[in-house]
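Suppose you are handed only two things: the residues of a chain and a line of SMILES describing zinc ion. What would the bound structure be? This form records exactly that question and the answer produced for it, so the two can be stored side by side and reused later without any lookup.

QUESTION INPUTS
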Amino acid sequence: MRIVLLGPPGAGKGTQAKLICETYNIPHISTGDLFRENMSKDTPLGKKAKDYMAKGLLVPDELVVDMVADRLTQADVAAAGRGFLLDGFPRTVVQAEALEKISAKNDLELDFAVNLEVPLDVLVERISGRRICPTCAATYHVKYNQPKDEGVCDLDGASLYQRDDDKVETVQKRIEVYQEQTEPLIAFYKEKKKIVDINGLQNMDDVFDDIKRVLDGANKI
Ligand SMILES: [Zn+2]
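ANSWER OUTPUT
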């Protein structure tokens, strides 16, 4: 099973990625982890990334692509029947085209681009309602997961706070950036008949059931 997982911040991508990878026994490949691994192991690609960061420069697309290409030739991908789930990559059409080339070269043709759909206003509510305990890192939500006493951690009584990243205006910006980059990406995979739209408004078990139905259907072919 070879999957790309798409979805805006707050769509529950992390939870679904975990469920998919456990169920289908495929490695979860996220760009964040790739960066951390390459840098902590001081690989040639990690060294290059560090050079850019030390200069205060953005890491160029081709370096990200090289990290993904390198990762897709590792043993666990082969052991999973050339399977993987990509999370956070591709983010742009340029990256998607690069992935097509890597796939063609390594006999790793993509099965699906799973697209978690959640309306903008819901995403903003989900993310901007998060509150975090500074002491134990427990997470709450002002509407969906309230502490017993407003603004106070159930476990240790510390005052909860909101991350800057989770403030309404920041969330709206993050989602706008995502939409600008990803809409063309969705069109790209639609044209290749790879896109699977999943209603991300349901609870996480129902979302996973919908994903599983599509992936299992594919397994039987
Ligand atoms: Zn706490």
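WHAT STANDS OUT: The mean pLDDT is 93. DSSP finds nine helices and seven strands in the chain.
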